[in-house]
């Protein structure tokens, strides 16, 4: 008799982004824009800090919640961004933003519970909920004729019931670039306070915003003991995707619980990786601004070239570094992504990767070298005209 695995795990769907990247690897000269990362390397300062930490022999176990100096630095960083004191007893360092999300879900979800997610949304969010044995409930935003994504709060709140443990809000949003407004965040916070529901706010793109210094954040408005988990990561703003370092800002009353879950998950984040994160957050603010400007150039190139193709529906995203666009007459996003690989030599992520409500759309990452990006856009435009 074959030994079984959990049915919820067996039912997990392969990621379409991985599928298209594997498909694209068969072809030479493909420009890969399918992953959510820039082509810029991590700045020198955190790289040097990591090497120095290794040379000092900092290769041993660490406190499960993170080194005190890093937690203090993150608390100071969050406090400065949000204009209110955020103490270190609200900060738990995790091995990636993805781990932060899993730690949050492990803290609040049992089998049979549900988490309501605003969609479109990056595929790992649904999967993380499903792995817990909970139900991901998707509430799709509307895309207007003006090119703006809008969230229907009544529909969001109506999706909640007695088994709803959290609302998951990814803002700035991957893949659309939508931002949840301050007024919407306040309405969501008021609702969750009344219902005893958590907010899980994925805010990893909050510094990659094109009309202000940072996006609206639940940390701007929540009190320290509000049921809010704010997920963040070093991956995006500091170009540290491969480092796997993130953090969770949460109520101090669950600090010890979160540390216990980290201890049982991966024990701790490596000391030398934390040293790099500390250097980044303390010394690389200029890079954050330079990176945002780099992304803005990419956004302009993509929207300029693709916006002149009649078949393409695209609008400049408010934030993050993705273009999410649709092509008239195309309904099978995986088939279209494969055609773009074969015929245009460009790799993009199929919309189906982000859920059934995103079928027919495509996502590309424009945090790339401008000339390479312009070549890729010219190839797409030529194929679709």
Topology:
Elements: H1 7-10, H2 16-24, E1 31-32, H3 44-55, H4 68-82, E2 91-94, H5 97-108, E3 114-119, H6 123-131, E4 135-140, E5 142-143, E6 149-150, H7 153-158, E7 164-170, H8 182-195, E8 198-202, E9 228-233, E10 246-249, H9 255-265, H10 271-283, H11 285-307, E11 312-313, E12 322-327, H12 333-344, E13 346-347, E14 349-350, E15 361-365, H13 370-384
Parallel strand pairs: 1-13, 3-4, 3-7, 7-8, 8-9
Antiparallel strand pairs: 2-10, 5-6, 9-10, 11-12, 12-15, 14-15
Total E-strand runs: 15
Q: Shape from CA axes?
A: globular
**Percent in strands:** 15-25%
N-to-C series of helices and strands: HHEHHEHEHEEEHEHEEEHHHEEHEEEH
N-to-C span: 56 Å
What class do helices, strands and sheet pairing give? alpha/beta
- Write out the CATH superfamily name of the largest domain: Type I PLP-dependent aspartate aminotransferase-like (Major domain)
Supply the CATH architecture of the largest domain: 3-Layer(aba) Sandwich
**Residues in helix, %:** 40-55%
Our count of domains comes out at 2
Q: Which regions contain 5 or more consecutive residues with pLDDT less than 50?
A: none
Q: What would the CATH topology of the largest domain be?
A: Aspartate Aminotransferase, domain 2
Largest sheet: 7 strands, mixed
**How many helix segments?**
13
Write down the Rg: 21 Å
Highest-level CATH class of the largest domain? Alpha Beta
């Amino acid at each position: 008799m074959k030994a079984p695995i959990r049915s919820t795990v067996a039912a997990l769907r392969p990621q379409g982004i991985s599928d298209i990247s594997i498909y694209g690897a068969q072809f030479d000269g493909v420009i890969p824009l399918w992953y959510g990362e820039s082509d810029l390397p991590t700045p020198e300062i955190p790289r040097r800090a990591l090497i120095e930490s290794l040379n000092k022999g900092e290769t041993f176990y660490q406190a499960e919640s993170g080194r005190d100096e890093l937690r203090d630095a993150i608390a100071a960083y969050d406090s400065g961004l949000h204009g209110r004191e955020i103490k270190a007893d609200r900060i738990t360092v995790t091995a990636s933003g993805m781990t932060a999300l899993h730690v949050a879900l492990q803290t609040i979800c049992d089998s049979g519970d549900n988490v309501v997610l605003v969609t479109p949304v990056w595929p790992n969010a649904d999967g993380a909920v499903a792995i817990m044995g909970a139900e991901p409930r998707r509430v799709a935003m509307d895309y207007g004729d003006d090119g703006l994504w809008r969230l229907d709060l009544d529909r969001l709140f109506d999706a909640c019931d007695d088994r709803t443990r959290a609302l998951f809000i990814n803002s700035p949003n991957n893949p659309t670039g939508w931002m949840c407004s301050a007024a919407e965040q306040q309405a969501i916070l008021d609702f969750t306070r009344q219902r005893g529901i958590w907010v899980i706010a994925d805010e990893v793109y909050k510094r990659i915003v094109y009309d202000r210094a940072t996006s609206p954040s639940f940390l701007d408005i929540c009190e320290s003991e509000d049921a809010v988990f704010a997920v963040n990561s070093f991956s995006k703003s500091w170009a540290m995707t491969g480092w796997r370092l993130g953090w969770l800002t949460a109520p101090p009353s669950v600090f010890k619980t979160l540390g216990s879950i980290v201890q049982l998950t991966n024990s701790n984040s490596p000391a030398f990786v934390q040293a790099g994160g500390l250097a980044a957050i303390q010394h690389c603010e200029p890079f954050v601004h330079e990176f945002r400007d780099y992304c803005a150039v990419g956004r302009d190139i993509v929207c300029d070239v693709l916006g002149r193709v009649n078949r393409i529906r695209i609008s400049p995203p408010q934030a993050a570094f993705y273009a999410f666009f649709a092509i008239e007459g195309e309904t099978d996003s995986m088939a279209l992504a494969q055609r773009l690989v074969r015929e245009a030599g460009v790799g993009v992520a199929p919309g189906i990767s982000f859920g059934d409500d995103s079928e027919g759309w495509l996502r590309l990452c424009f945090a790339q070298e401008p000339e390479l990006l312009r070549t890729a856009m010219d190839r797409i435009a030529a194929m679709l005209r």
